[in-house]
TrEMBL record:
<dbReference type="Pfam" id="PF02738">
    <property type="entry name" value="MoCoBD_1"/>
</dbReference>
<dbReference type="InterPro" id="IPR016208">
    <property type="entry name" value="Ald_Oxase/xanthine_DH-like"/>
</dbReference>
<dbReference type="InterPro" id="IPR037165">
    <property type="entry name" value="AldOxase/xan_DH_Mopterin-bd_sf"/>
</dbReference>
<dbReference type="GO" id="GO:0016491">
    <property type="term" value="F:oxidoreductase activity"/>
</dbReference>
<dbReference type="Pfam" id="PF20256">
    <property type="entry name" value="MoCoBD_2"/>
</dbReference>
<keyword id="KW-0560">Oxidoreductase</keyword>
<protein>
    <submittedName>
        <fullName>Molybdopterin-binding domain of aldehyde dehydrogenase family protein</fullName>
    </submittedName>
</protein>
<dbReference type="GO" id="GO:0005506">
    <property type="term" value="F:iron ion binding"/>
</dbReference>
<keyword id="KW-0500">Molybdenum</keyword>
<dbReference type="InterPro" id="IPR036856">
    <property type="entry name" value="Ald_Oxase/Xan_DH_a/b_sf"/>
</dbReference>
<dbReference type="InterPro" id="IPR000674">
    <property type="entry name" value="Ald_Oxase/Xan_DH_a/b"/>
</dbReference>
<dbReference type="Pfam" id="PF01315">
    <property type="entry name" value="Ald_Xan_dh_C"/>
</dbReference>
<dbReference type="InterPro" id="IPR008274">
    <property type="entry name" value="AldOxase/xan_DH_MoCoBD1"/>
</dbReference>
<dbReference type="InterPro" id="IPR046867">
    <property type="entry name" value="AldOxase/xan_DH_MoCoBD2"/>
</dbReference>
Amino acid sequence: MAYVGTRVARVEDTRLLTGHGTFVDDIIRPGMLHACFVRSPFARARIKGIDASVALRLPGVRAVLTAADINPEVHEAWHAVAGKDMPDTPRPPLAEGEAKFVGDPVALVVAESRYIAEDAVELVDVDYEPLPAVADFRKAVGGAEAGAPVVHEAYPDNVAGGLSGAPPDEETFASAAHVATVNVYQQIHAPVPIECRGIVAEWTAATEELTVWAATQTPHELRAFAARLLGIPAQKVRVIMRDTGGGFGQKVVPMREDMAILIAARKVPGPLKWIEDRRENLMAAQQSRHVDGTARMALDEDGNILAVDIDFTYDIGAYPTPYPVLTTAAVGMFFPGPYRVPKASFNYRTVFSHTPGLAAYRGPWQYETLCREILLDIAARQMGMDPVDLRRRNLLRRDEMPYFNPNGMPYDHVAPIETFEQAVKILDHEGFRKEQAEALAEGRYIGLGFSAYIEPTGANTGHLASEGATIRMEPTGKINVYVNGGSTGNSIETTVVQLTADVLGALIDDVSTIQGDTAVTPYGAGTQGSRSGPMTAGAVHEAGSILRRQIVAIAAHLLDVEADQIDLGGSKAFVRDDPSRSVGFPEIAYRAYYEPGQLPPGVSATLEATARFTSQAPIHWANATHACTCEVDIETGQVTLTRYIVSEDVGPMINPNVVEGQIAGGTVQGIGGALLEHMVYDADGNPLASTFVDYLLPTATEVPVIEFGHIEIPGPGVGGYKGCGEGGAIGSGAAVINAVNDALAPLGVTITRLPASPSAIVALIEESKNGTSQ
């Protein structure tokens, strides 16, 4: 293995850092038209009429399309994430009859430039009848019977659905030596990719073909979705994805605006481009995380966990991504976490509100870790135990694998106690506790928080269970590897080149990759579910092994030895016992492409292989422990993070730089969710954070240097690789909140409502001083 496991520089960086990336807004087509959406200014309003006459008289305006023009054109609108037979919630491309959130797309303006389209949007006269709305999902439960406005008539109680596991073992809770309970409210915050959503759709009427350029994490699924939506054969659709400036889950499935653009493209006389601006993204590109729940933990007198229970309500807005009832179940299923938990129970409901809708966001089940890890610290304080000792007592060990959590999740190839102990060692726990005591004596409040989690990566479910790859040696001897992939910041371009170079024995500079074009790449489920590492590694291994045998067979003929005497390395084939006898890849390729007749019978001239990898392991489990230290200014409420440590196990690392980059990015997003980011709505459903002036993101000044520790326990798949895309965002929020709570513990303050903003911290301190805190 010459390259896998090494810190190879990212092959895409030169292109991106010098401004030569190709993002969807860089696409310019002859005769291209531009689209802008007319959006509702009301959280709920009856649409009594739309008058586009003035807008249509504006020079350069080509069309104004409404729900009557667009919505009847929908043939099928299911996504592979849920499948065609799974019940789903409503999702019309344009608002039909009633707008259901501020920013709901009501009409589509098509013009010769973006500037004209923006101006024309202001000229479309929509006759709205404002209606009562419910933006707080907790007040929506029950619908009309509870006196709340109904979001969808088909769901009169505003509950899309829910699920329960085993009922709580109340006898255990009643008899336990210690029971800790916490209510944790997590605010709305969003993926906020650097590049907003965008799509260019070009319909060629003569051939009835559709070409789409998109900012997407799943080009092949977008292709299949577009074909279903329009009722045309999939071979008539080509999706091209070049560079995408982050997705984080928001760009996995096509949303309503994408549907409208795909349909409109067949109605206008030129390619159609829509680029979302930041205000639209914050207002309408769907939300994440919004949960309210109560969790309990029963422990014996020594601190051993006896049972856990969680009951929560999840806000899914007006138009959630596919089948939110099922995907939300992961919170309950994973709640026992990486701990030895004999009994677990959960119950939840998903609730509509007059806000945009729930979207996937890096670890969509993250609330289970946030809630459980805050609860563990509360339990430890109640028992007079250090949270480190409580976790140490209950974390699962390597010799306990395989282990089924009480909800039936089959853990294996992990040892959560090992990442935890490594984080504790890097931190110097005892040294920090001494420093903390000294700081308190000086009137300074510093704290330490831990968070441990276990997460499924590369899950063997539905269309996520397989991935394809094509590897071709070109006539020059250079190698191209084709995978679904796509550059969304997760470095598949680099890791796939490393994997291919090693499986073929090629020099890394001789390998390139082609990704994100459905016309030439094999089907793949794309970047989601922390699957890219284990699944592309499997696909490259399958295709590479076939091509390797073909290279070896031709080399054996040229070197006049048996195939089992040939090794590959350095972009050449050589005789194992006499490396001086060798033939380079260019010579092998020349013979195969230009002199195939000279190959003996039975030796194929083919230097190309396509294969699909299907995971045989149900789940590749990764895990990590986050440790955070902070100082809190109790006068201003300002939180300063002083150290941040992540010890993780994602199996052997294909590229440590990539792994650490993925973890760091997710960690910063979790820090933002804990301290800063908040998609605020007023009582009438108006968004109050629709720009970066109000929606605060973490910057380099808020984030300390992240320190890494690595434990490498191979997973069950090819190479033992596990996914690492979501873990940083899963573990960081709880570690930060626990650090803040540890710092404020001497004041009797515990934060359980996020974000932990300065004003919220000061208010809780004042409540504690006045004896009014819980």
